[in-house]
Design goal:
globular, 2 domains, alpha/beta
Amino acid sequence: MGRSCIWRIGGEQWVGLRYCKQAEFVDNQGRTKTEVLASFKSAETADFAENLDGKRRCRNGAATMPQMVAATMSKQTIQFGYDKDGVWLRVRGRRSVFLDTNCWINLADGKRDSSVRLRETLRAAVAGGIVFCPLSWGILEELFDQSGPSLPRTASLMEELSLNAVFVIREELYAWELSRSIRRFIGKANNESLNGLFTPPAAFVGSGPAVSIDFPDGISLSPQAQAHAQAYMKKHLSEIGVAKLAQDMGGNKKDRTPPAYSSAAKKAREEFGGDKLKLFVMEAGDCFRTYVTPLLFKYPPNVIVPWLKHLGRDRDEVAFFQNALAEFPALYNYTEIMMVADSQPDRKDKHNHFMDNEIMVAPLAYCNVFVSEDKGMKDIAAKRTKILGRTKCQYLDRLDALECWLTERAA
């Protein structure tokens, strides 16, 4: 008998197959391939699964998916992706309005007349192609903590107003910023649009999922089979919306350990005292080494070395980090937010602090408007950092102010 493998489409397990030496289909419950296919809910899913054995034929009689070819490997990994271009086609040309979680809940619940009025104004603006309201990993995580009627109600509104556009996760965000910086430096035509910054909701934890399959020695998927699987998964994973994610993942609030911000802040106070410049160099260095340095090896040395020299790597350390972070608006935001955390050794750590910090990073760099009535976030953005002095994003601390902003844009 071969080994088991689990395939999932949109979080739904659809078959766990054991491959016999003859590559017969027998699932983990001992059902034959015919019985497995008959159990699938979706005819389209069944059609793809039937193609896996390479016997499905096109109209011209050619096999659509010859699956197994000779190889000397027992494990094969297939990398899948998401349709970021499709997301960009939905949102390009629109202004972006980012709402924090409490704003979403207030709009969805509609307990105040002003919330209902603003919700309908936003719906009209989205339907009219004027705005969209992108989401982020942090917003979705806080959505999934909800339960009861509020969960599907808020998720449905998020799907409608976001057009199922979610900021890519932190690592992908900084890789995207690096790519733009290098293209500018070497003089290549640089697309200054935000294409690549948004991804479908199912990719909120990363847009590079992979499946590893164990085969008997000498058996593997052919390149044509891999391409077919990748295209199929890209299409179906990208079609999963916020409402479906919330249905599958929401309603189970997790007990999370608060980040140890205060411990790090105590160490920073002991080491640097109140020297903000030294704190900046430490935090900027940590961020750069963690998120940027690993990415540099993907580029040829004859590009990276001049790029680093251009930023002042061989001169003053402070100037280098200031120049470098200017090329990474979101990473610059993150660095400053971490400096704020490092300067509060006596604050009681809460998981909400971590989520607030995550939520601010990308939207304050790339959105037109950021809306939050949270006093802590406003304190960080407006008083404790220079974020609002660098960004073109307009910070609104009241939902009512958003209604005025939308009215001006519609005029």
